[in-house]
Amino acid sequence: MLTRLEIRNLAVIEHVVFCPSQGLNVISGETGAGKSLLIDAIELIFGQKASKDLIRNDCDSASVEAVFELEPLTEKRLKPVMDEYGIPIEDGQIIISRTFKEEGKSAARINGTGVVLSQLRRISSELIDIHGQNDNSRLFDPALHITMLDSYGGKKIDELLSSYRNKLQEYKDLASEYAEVNKLASSSSSRIEYLTYAFKEIREADIKPGEDETLLLRKKELSNLARDKALIDDVNKLTSGADNSGLTPSGRLSEALRTLTRLASKDDSYSEYVSRLESISLDLDAFVSDFQDKTSDSAFSEDEEHRVADRLSKIFELESKYGKTIEEVNDFADKAQKELSDIEEAGLKSSELKKRLNTVKSELLDIAGQLSDERKKLADKMSSEITSELKDLEMPSSSFSVRFDTRPKDRYFNINGIDDVRFMFTANPGQPPMDLAATASGGEASRIMLAIKNILSSADTMPTLIFDEIDTGVSGRASLAIASKLRSISKEHQVLCVSHTAQLASAADAGFLIEKKTDGISTHTDITLLSDEDRVKEVSRLLSGKDDNESNELARKMIEELRT
Fold first, then answer.
1. CB 128 within 8 A of CB 42
2. Angle 509-515-518 from CA coordinates, rounded to 5°
3. Beta carbons within 8 Å of 116's beta carbon, 6+ residues apart
4. What is the pLDDT of residues 517-560, one digit of tens each?
5. Of 380, 428, 375, which Cα lies nearest the Cα of 401?
6. Is residue 125 classed as helix, strand or coil in its secondary structure?
7. Which CA distances in Å does 393 have to 28, 177, 347, 382, 460?
8. β pairing state of 523-529 and 419-426
C-alpha cells in the first residue's frame, strides 16, 4: 500500500507530505484548495506525462516521491517484472520518484534505478488503480474481464481452469508431436535417397577420429623421403653405378689393382701403392654395403604416397559434404540413420497420434464446455449482484450483464478456454447493453466501478484503489451508500477517496484536509491529518458550512453511525 507521498513545487503545493493509512482515507477541502493536485501527483507516479505548467511559479523543477509497502503476494507478483528491469526490491518496499524541469527534461526512478515511462507504468499499474472522471481502470479493459469473472468464481472455477489448462498443455504437446511425426512420414523420396546415400558413403569410408592428422603427418614424412631418395640415388650412382663400359667404381678399382699388381711384380717400389689401393677398394665395398643397408630401411614408396593422398582426399570430400571434422561427419551418419529409422516408424506412429489427439481434443472440449457453463452461471449471479449494487448507488434503471462469445475456430483454444467475455452496461430501460467502456462516463463510470469493486473486492489483487470525487452529483442517500461500499472495499484494500460530501468524510478511517493559504504575496497548499475533533468540524462544514454546537453534534453522530 501507499505509505508516503511527498510533493514539491507542484502548482500551489510548495512542499507537502501525505501519509495515508490502511483502510479508508478521505481527503476533503474547500473547492479550489488543491484536492485535484493530489491526484495529479499520484498520476505522475502512475506514469502520466509531466507538464511544465504544473511547476510552481519561480521554481525551475517539481518532484513527486511515493513509498509503497508490499504485501507478500504483491511482492511475489511484482518480482519477475522488477528482475526483468534489473531493479531490486529492498525491505519489501518500492520507492517511485518523478522529477521534471521547466526546460522539459523529466526523470523517473524506481528504488534508485532510472526507468522509462513504459516501465514505470507497468510497475505502478500493479500498485495503484485510479477511478475518476477520466478513469483508466483495468476494469474497462475487456481482456481482463474473463480473469475477474473467474476470480469471482472461486475454488470451483480454479479447479476447472486448472484441469482445462493441464489438458490444453497435453493437447498442445500431442499436436506438436503429431505435426513433427506427420512431417517425417511425408518426407520426400529425394530426402530418403539422400540420407541413405550419405549414410552408406560415410560408413563405407570408415574414417576414424584423428585419422586425418596421422595421414597428414605421414604425407609430410613421405614428401621428405621423396626428396632424400633423389640424393641417395645420386650417391648410389656415383659409388656403385656402372659407366658406359659397364664397370662400377668398385670394378674400376679392381682393374686398376690388377694392373698395379703386374707393375709391382716388375718394380718392388709399387708394392706400397698396391696395399693402399687394396685398402681403398675394401673401404669402398664396405661403404656401398653399409650405405645400402642404411637407406633400405627408409625407402620411399610411391604406392604408399598414392594411398595416403587418396585417403586424405576422401576425408576432405566427406568433410566438405557433411561436417567440418571427422567427428561431425560420423555424427551426421548417426543422425541420418536415426532420421531414416524415424521416417520408417513415422507412418505407423502418425495414425496412432492422430487417434490420441482426437481423444484429447474431445476431452478438452468437454472441460472447456463445463468451464463455459459454470462461467455463465457465475455471470448471471454476478450481474444480478452488481445491478443491485447500482440501485443502491442511485442508478435504479441501470443494468449490468456479461456477454459471452465463442472464440473463432482459428484461435479456438487459449489459456482461458473457448470464451471471450465482455462486461456490458445500460443506464436506461429499453436500451440494449453496450460495452462497459463505451457506455458510462463521468460520475456514472465511477459508481459502476464502485459497484464492481465492491462485488469483486475479495478477488481483486490491487493493493491501493483511488476514487476521485466518486460522489459528484449524487444525493445524500446515494452518498451514504457510496460511503458504506467504500468502507466494505477498504477491508480488502487501501482506499483513497477525494470527496466533498459529509457522508464519505464521516466514514473514513483517516481524514485529511487540504487547505490553500496565502500571505498576500504567495499561495501554498497544505494537507493535514485530522484529529477526531478536527474531523467533527470538517464534517460539520461539509454538512452545513457552519461550526456551531448543533452542526458539530450532528457531525459527531454521523461519524459514529457510519464507522460502526
1. yes
2. 165
3. 108
4. 877 777 888 899 999 999 999 999 988 887 788 888 999 999 88
5. 380
6. coil
7. 21, 55, 66, 16, 21
8. unpaired
Residue holding cell 664397370?
247
pLDDT, one tens digit per residue, over 165-224 is: 999 999 999 999 998 888 877 777 788 888 889 999 999 999 999 998 998 988 887 787
CA 109 to CA 374: how far, in whole Å?
44
Q: What is the 3-state secondary structure (H, E, C) of 367-412?
A: HHHHHHHHHHHHHHHHHHHHHHHHHHCCCCCCEEEEEEEECCHHHC
The residues that bridge with 422 in the sheet, in sequence order, are 403
What is residue 1's DSSP assignment? -
Beta strands in 33-80 (DSSP E): 61-69
Sign of CA dihedral 220, 224, 227, 233: negative
Number of C-beta neighbours around residue 69 at 10 A: 17
**Residues facing 193 on adjacent strands:** none
Considering the domain delimited by 1-127+462-564, tell me its CATH architecture. 3-Layer(aba) Sandwich (3.40)
SS3 26: strand
Q: Taking all residues of the chain, what is their mean pLDDT, rounded to a whole number?
A: 86
Tell whether pTM > 0.85.
no
Cβ within 8 Å of residue 371, ≥6 positions away: 157, 160, 161, 164, 417, 419
Strands across the sheet containing 434-435: 399-406, 419-426, 434-435
Query: Distance between CA atoms of 132 and 145, rounded to whole angstroms?
Result: 19
